[in-house]
Amino acid sequence: MQWRDEQATKFAAATVNGNLTCLSSAFSYFVDREWVETNPCHGVSRIEQKDAAIYTWIQTRDEITKLLVECPKGIREFVTLAVGTGMRLDELVHLQWADIDLERRLIAVHRGRHGTTKSGKARYIPILNTLVPFLRDLALKRGGAKLVFPGEDGKPRSKPGVRFPFKQAAKRAGLPEALRFHDLRHTFASHWVLDGGDIFRLSKILGHANVTITQKVYAHLAPEAWEQDYHRVSFVVPNTGSVYALTKRKPRTAKPEETPLVEEAA
Q: Do residues 57 and 190 make contact, with C-beta atoms less than 8 angstroms apart?
């Protein structure tokens, strides 16, 4: 229980619950092999998960500008790239210049806190036009450094060393107190959806395991935009009234022997 509560102060509920499930499975295996007597995870309840759609994000570009103005040198660059790419902080601190292709305008993400990705393959993030001059200038300032954001010792910067000054800058900019550095990722994704970006492409950019995760978090943002996308395919469906007129059976013509004798009726 104590381990779970400590984890909850560092990670999202879904992450803690997933870790607890894995740990419980491991101990169940140990019990079966008689390596331990009991599974300490039995009886430990999962943490209640809040609606995935509830998160903090920067809703206007003016607010993003205010935040950048308040950020100290060194943190401003982190924020710029985070809000412009949707990359996680641990991915940013491990990002290398070799991962950035300004000619093709792509960033290859295949490093993070756990080393390379599970599949061993990189995911690719498009570089926005506005980020191209920013990255070129930053490369000149770095003077041939391997990392995009090196620490004083040339190694990846510590994440707390980025989060703390970021929180202070966000406070000075008048942004919500709950805003975290990770919410810059939500900010990127939210504006992508609101501007009519493709949800499947966004899922690939964010590195989600499947598009269902992306939809669960961001689908509520742009129902009107998605409704417009839906109506773009209406051309494949003929007008229902016309179809009905074409398929409606015509009255059956009476056979000669069934033709009423008008003369007799008269």
A: yes
d(C-alpha 237, C-alpha 243), whole Å = 10
* Residue spans per domain, the chain: 1-50, 61-223
Burial zone of 252 (CB within 10 Å; 0-12 exposed, 13-18 middle, 19+ buried):
exposed
pLDDT on residue 262:
41
Q: What is residue 10's predicted lDDT score, i.e. its pLDDT?
A: 66
Dihedral (CA of 187, 189, 190, 196) sign: positive
262: its two tokens: 């008008």
The DSSP secondary structure of 1-46, one letter per residue, reads: -HHHHHHHTTS-HHHHHHHHHHHHHHHHHHHHTTSSS--TTTTPPP
According to CATH, the topology of domain 61-223 is: hpI Integrase; Chain A (1.10.443)
